[in-house]
C-alpha cells in the first residue's frame, strides 16, 4: 500500500490545505492585549498532542533566568506546516513572539511566530496563528 | 445666579474625575472588542473554504458513490442563519460564547458527539454494509453508520455518538441518528441540545474532491425549528490521518479561564 505520508522539505509549503480549526478557542486561554516577545535557549520540546509545547530559558537584564512555556499547534497541523519533532532541540537559540496566558501565569504564552536558530521566522500553527491569519 | 469660585473648582474637579475614570475603561473595552476574533460557530462564516480538486466521483462496485477518503473537516458555508433556540438554550449559548468557550468539553478530551466534525481531518471508510467516520482530532475515535438496518436500536443508555443508520437516496447518503446524551457541545460557540436530539445528515460527493454535507438538527427540547447547516468537506490528497492522542499532554484545562474582563 502506498504510504501517503509526505515528508515536507520546508515550512509553510502546504499551508493552504491545512484546516486551522483549533482544539480550543484562543481567547479562552490567551490574551490579544498582552503580546510578548522574548529570546532565549530551548530547554525542552514536548512533541505531543493536543498541543506541542517547548520551553525556553530567558535571561532578564539582571541575569535572572525564567523558564517559559510556549504552546504550538497540534501535531497534525504542525507536520503540514513543515515542523518536525526535532525542529527545536535543547540548546537552540530562539526568539518567540506571541500572547501571554490570561490566568496571570507570567511565563506561559501562545507562540504565534518562532525565529529558529537558522534565522527562519515560522508560524507556530497555534490558535493565535489561526485566529490572526 | 453666579457660580462662586469654590463651586467652579468643585465642578471642574468632578469633570476631570469623570474624564479620568471613564476614558481608560472605555478605551480598554473598545480595544478588547476590536481585538476579539470570532471562532468556529460563534459567528456565521462569510467566506466559503477553497474547493477541493476536480475529477469524477469514484464509485463502488454496486454503483453507489464511494465517499471514502481523508477529508478536510466539514467547514460551514456562508448563507446559513443562526438557529431558532428556546430561551434557555439561547441564554446558555450566549453565556458559553461570551466566556470564549472556556468550558468546552472538547478541550478536555471529551467526545465531540454528532454532528461535530472538527478539529482537523475526518476519514470516511465505506463498505457496502457500513460506513465508518474516523476523527483525526478530538479523541481520535470513530462513528459507525449502519447501512443494513432500516430501524434504530432500542436505546436504553444515551450515547455520545448515538445510533446512526444510513440509506441511499439516489447518489446521496442519508444518515439518521438518535439516542444521544446531552453532554457534548455542537461547536465552540456552545450550542446545546437535549436527549431528544435527532440528526439527519445528507452526504453528497459532488465530484472527486468535494463532499457536500447538509446537516439538520431537530431537537424540540432546545430548538423551536429544525436547524439546517450546509458544510463542505474537501479532499486531503497529501496526508493520511495523523495519530492524535488528546490526553497525552493536555496542559490546557487549568488555564482555560475565559473572559477575565480585560484584567
Structure in words:
- The complex is a heterodimer of chains A (133) and B (263).
- Chain A is mainly beta and 133 residues long.
- Chain A has a single domain, classed as OB fold (Dihydrolipoamide Acetyltransferase, E2P) (Beta Barrel).
- In chain A, 13% of the residues lie in helices and 38% in strands.
- Chain A has three helices and six strands, in the order H-E-E-E-H-E-E-E-H.
- Chain A has a five-stranded mixed beta barrel with strand order 1-2-3-5-4.
- In chain A, strand 5 and strand 6 (121-123) form a beta hairpin.
- The longest helix of chain A is centred in the middle third of the chain and has 7 residues, at 75-81.
- Chain A is globular, with a radius of gyration of 15 Å.
- Chain A starts with 25 loop residues before the first helix and ends with a helix.
- Residues 1-9 and 13-18 of chain A have low confidence and may be disordered.
- With 263 residues, chain B is an alpha+beta fold.
- Chain B has a single domain (69-255), classed as Lipocalin (Beta Barrel).
- Helices cover 16% and strands 25% of the residues of chain B.
- Chain B has a nine-stranded mixed barrel.
- The longest helix of chain B is centred in the N-terminal third of the chain and has 30 residues, at 5-34.
- Chain B is globular and about 60 Å long.
Amino acid at each position: 500500500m502506498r504510504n501517503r505520508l509526505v515528508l515536507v522539505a520546508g515550512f509553510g509549503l502546504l499551508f493552504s490545505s491545512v484546516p486551522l480549526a483549533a482544539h480550543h478557542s484562543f481567547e479562552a486561554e490567551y490574551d490579544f492585549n498582552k503580546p510578548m516577545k522574548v529570546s532565549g535557549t530551548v530547554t525542552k520540546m514536548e512533541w505531543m498532542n493536543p498541543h506541542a509545547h517547548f520551553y525556553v530559558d530567558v535571561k532578564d537584564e539582571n541575569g535572572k533566568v525564567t523558564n517559559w512555556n510556549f504552546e504550538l499547534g497540534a501535531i497534525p497541523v504542525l507536520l503540514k506546516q513543515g515542523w518536525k519533532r526535532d525542529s527545536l532541540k535543547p540548546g537552540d537559540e530562539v526568539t518567540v513572539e506571541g500572547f501571554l496566558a490570561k490566568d496571570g501565569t507570567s511565563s506561559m504564552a501562545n507562540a504565534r511566530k518562532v525565529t529558529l536558530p537558522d534565522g527562519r521566522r515560522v508560524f507556530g500553527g497555534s490558535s493565535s496563528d489561526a485566529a490572526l491569519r | 445666579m453666579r457660580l462662586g469660585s469654590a463651586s467652579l473648582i468643585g465642578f471642574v474637579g468632578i469633570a476631570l474625575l469623570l474624564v479620568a475614570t471613564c476614558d481608560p475603561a472605555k478605551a480598554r473595552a473598545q480595544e478588547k472588542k476590536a481585538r476579539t476574533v470570532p471562532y468556529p460557530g460563534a459567528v456565521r462564516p462569510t467566506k466559503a473554504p477553497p474547493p477541493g480538486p476536480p475529477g469524477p466521483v469514484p464509485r463502488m462496485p454496486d454503483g453507489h458513490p464511494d465517499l471514502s477518503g481523508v477529508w478536510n473537516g466539514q467547514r460551514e458555508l456562508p448563507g446559513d442563519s443562526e438557529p431558532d433556540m428556546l430561551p434557555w438554550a439561547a441564554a446558555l449559548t450566549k453565556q458559553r460564547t461570551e466566556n470564549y468557550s472556556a468550558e468546552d468539553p472538547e478541550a478536555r478530551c471529551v467526545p465531540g458527539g454528532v454532528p461535530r466534525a472538527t478539529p482537523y481531518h475526518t476519514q470516511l471508510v465505506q463498505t457496502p454494509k457500513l460506513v465508518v467516520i474516523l476523527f483525526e482530532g478530538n479523541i481520535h475515535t470513530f462513528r459507525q453508520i449502519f447501512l443494513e438496518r432500516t430501524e434504530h436500536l432500542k436505546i436504553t443508555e444515551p450515547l455520545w455518538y448515538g445510533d446512526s443508520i444510513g440509506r441511499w437516496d439516489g447518489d446521496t447518503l442519508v444518515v439518521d441518528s438518535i439516542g444521544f446524551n446531552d453532554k457534548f457541545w455542537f461547536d465552540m460557540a456552545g450550542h446545546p441540545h437535549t436527549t431528544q436530539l435527532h440528526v439527519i445528515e445528507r452526504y453528497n460527493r459532488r465530484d472527486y474532491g468535494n463532499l457536500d454535507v447538509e446537516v439538520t438538527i431537530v431537537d424540540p427540547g432546545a430548538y423551536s425549528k429544525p436547524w439546517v447547516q450546509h458544510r463542505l468537506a474537501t479532499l486531503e490528497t497529501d496526508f493520511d490521518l495523523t495519530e492524535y492522542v488528546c490526553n497525552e499532554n493536555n496542559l490546557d484545562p487549568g488555564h482555560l479561564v475565559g473572559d477575565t474582563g480585560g484584567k
